[in-house]
Design goal:
heterodimer; A: alpha/beta; Rossmann fold; four-stranded parallel sheet; B: 148 residues; alpha/beta; Mannitol-specific EII, Chain A; 6 helices; globular
Chain lengths: 89, 148
């Protein structure tokens, strides 16, 4: 499963989210490939992924992509991240 | 193991300080980065502009803002700053306000800060460690918690 984590700059919050998504996937026994991107270039790459994870504020920037976009409110909440992964596995 | 004495030196800390709003809180985080020699003043403005443009998405978990902008000439070295607010401030993030800890992040490139970020992610995921970080009395104590 290819997952794209999106934040404003592609180096801060999306990187933290990527680490936690990888941890959550490992806990669930899921095989994932996680990449990060800034919101600007995410529109172009979103379609190459199975799932896009981002924050509430940035989700509207990704409207129009065919890939499901899930907004994560608490990036440090493993249960929230796991629920998003399980829903779209 | 990430070397926090390099990436988060004493000069990058401001503990139990007052900020009247989110801009001032980010300015304090920017000052920590400048004082530690990681960034120029331009980077502080860039962090504020990022919030103005993209909203308070950097408030990634209740009480914590990860203030940052993108790698640029304003970033001299990769590093972090740590601002613990005496009185929490609103960033406008409904789910995760108010913010009591602002971590400033300056990355020279997309990879250099990964090890430090990974250690911070582990600490923030651990409720016992977040409580210890909130109560810690000194920069050295905070670094020791992050390194543990």
């Amino acid at each position: 499963m290819d997952i794209l984590c999106v934040c404003g700059m592609g180096i801060g919050t999306s990187v933290l989210l990527k680490m936690n998504v990888e941890q959550a996937a490992a806990d669930l026994g899921m095989d994932v490939n996680v990449t990060t991107s800034d919101a600007g270039s995410a529109k172009g790459t979103a379609n190459m992924n199975d799932l896009v994870l981002t924050s509430e504020e940035l989700a509207p920037e990704l409207e129009g992509t065919s890939t499901p976009v899930v907004a994560i409110t608490n990036f440090m909440d493993m249960d929230e991240i796991k629920a998003a992964l399980e829903e779209h596995a | 193991m990430a070397d926090f004495s390099t990436f988060l030196p004493d000069s990058a800390f401001a503990l139990d300080v007052e900020a009247k709003d989110w801009r001032e809180a980010i300015k304090l985080a920017g000052k920590g980065l400048v004082d530690a020699g990681f960034t120029t003043d331009d980077y502080t403005n860039q962090m504020i502009e990022t919030v103005e443009k993209l909203g308070p998405y950097m408030v990634i978990t209740p009480g914590l803002a990860l203030a940052h902008s993108r790698p640029s000439d304003a970033v001299l070295h990769t590093g972090l700053s740590w601002v613990r607010l005496a009185t929490p401030v609103e960033f406008g993030n409904k789910a995760n306000d108010p913010v009591s800890l602002v971590i400033g992040l300056a990355g020279r490139d997309e990879n250099e800060h990964l090890e430090v970020m990974s250690a911070i992610a582990k600490a923030l995921m651990d409720q016992k460690k977040t409580a210890q970080l909130a109560a810690a009395q000194s920069p050295a104590e905070i670094r020791a918690i992050l390194e543990s």
